[in-house]
Structure formats: structure tokens, C-alpha cells
Amino acid sequence: MSAPTTPHRIVFANEKGGTGKSTTAVHIAIALAYQGHRVAAIDLDPRQRTFHRYLENRTETMKRREIDLPTVRFEVFRGETAEELDALVAELGADVDFLIFDTPGRDDPLARHAATSADTLVTPLNDSFVDFDLIGQVDAETFKVRRLSFYAELIWETRKKRAMATIRDQRREMDWVVVRNRTQHVEARNMRRLDNALTELSRRVGFRVAQGLSERVIYRELFPSGLTLLDKGHLGELGTSHLVARQELRQLVAGLNLPQPLSRTGAGMTAPQLTAEEA
Fold it and tell me: How far apart are CA 96 and CA 29, in angstroms?
């Protein structure tokens, strides 16, 4: 009998709401399920529980339409302590390839605890200096980065501690990915300024930048059904913008550079099929 493996932990976290964090997390979770992986997920926001509700809606749609879609095991965490969270993590992560956490859009001790254990930490940001301020402050005249913001300092310290654990406990290094969500065609000079600021800060604190999901109405329209852009054949007729959105999602999945453990299910789509799927 082979030894049990530890699931790759993906934590979606920042301290600001309205960045498309839960929508991104759901689509990544379902993309991994389409690749044939076993995926579990924990919603750490028992008040809003957007991630949990999205997957509840998916389950209800499958029952109502009598269809079978790739999905994930999911729970909303209602406990109060890190020990209780660790117990739930041990239970859900016992036989999965990936364990996903969706955290509240605010400073939260349990979100911090989850972040310290992340193998891949995903921080979605709206494509503006308002959201950039979460991780770094810029000069009003030059737009050069003046200092790290509190959240970036927190993750920097977390990664340093994690680096020590990586050597001592043979754990994976944490990969921090800042995802630029809700991008729009805005004034080119502002885009260059933001690009430069992200590049400068990424070199200082060691995160990678990935292109995320654009601002599109379809994401809000899909929520009540729990369907995703990958559920071809169940979405009706899609327009050109929806097909472009699906390609954005494929690029984001590839940009996260997640490991590809051998599926335990022997079912589902493989990674190449998902990437090459034609809408």
C-alpha cells in the first residue's frame, strides 16, 4: 500500500473584497476537477459564504437537470480556532490532490493561518492602484513603490518562516501569485504605471503576476446555477466574449503552474484535453 500524499494547498486570499476572489477560486477548483483530480474546498467566510453557495447551486443544478458534472467536496468552516480548522483540513484533505481555501475579504486570523500553510497563495487584485495599495504604496508623482503595505509585509514574513520549514520539514516552497482580475481597456499610461509598479514590487517581495479574469457579466449570471465557463454543452449558445473568457480561464490555470499529480479517480479530462478544448 502506497503512503498517503499531502494535497497541494491553494489559498485564495487578500484583505479586500470585490476582487473576484470567490469566482476565481470556484473556476480553478472546477478546472482541476475537469482534469480528473480529486479536489476539496473550504470556505472560511461563514457569513457571506459565496464560494460555498456557488457550489451548492452547482449541486442543485445537477440534481434538477439530472446531469453529472465534475465537482468538488466542499465545506464552510464555522469553527473559531486554528485547531478546529486543522482538524477539518485533515478530514477533507485525507484523499484529495488539491485542497482549496477561499478566505474572507478582510483581516482574519484564520485566513492568516491558512495562508501560512499555502503551497500556492493566490491574491486576486482589481487592476487599479486602489487595489494595488493592499500590497504596496506608490509615490503620487512618480508612481514608484515607496513601501510595502501591511499585507505584503505579512506574506513576506510568512514566506520567510515557510522557507525554514521547507528545509526542516521538507515542505514545498510557497508560490505567491498576484492575479490581475477585472482588467479593462483603460488609459494606456495608467496601465503602464500599474505594470511598472507590479513588476518593481514583485522583484522586492517575490510574487509572480498572472493575468486573471476580465470584468464580464457572465460570471454573475452563472452564479445562480453554479455552472462555470468550462461546462460546455450546458450553457446554451455562447457569444464571442464568452469564448474569450474561457480562454482567459485556461491561461490563468496554466499561469498558476500547479503540479499535476496522478489522478486517483482514473476518470475525467486530462490536463492537455482541458487546455485544447475548443469552444
Answer: 12
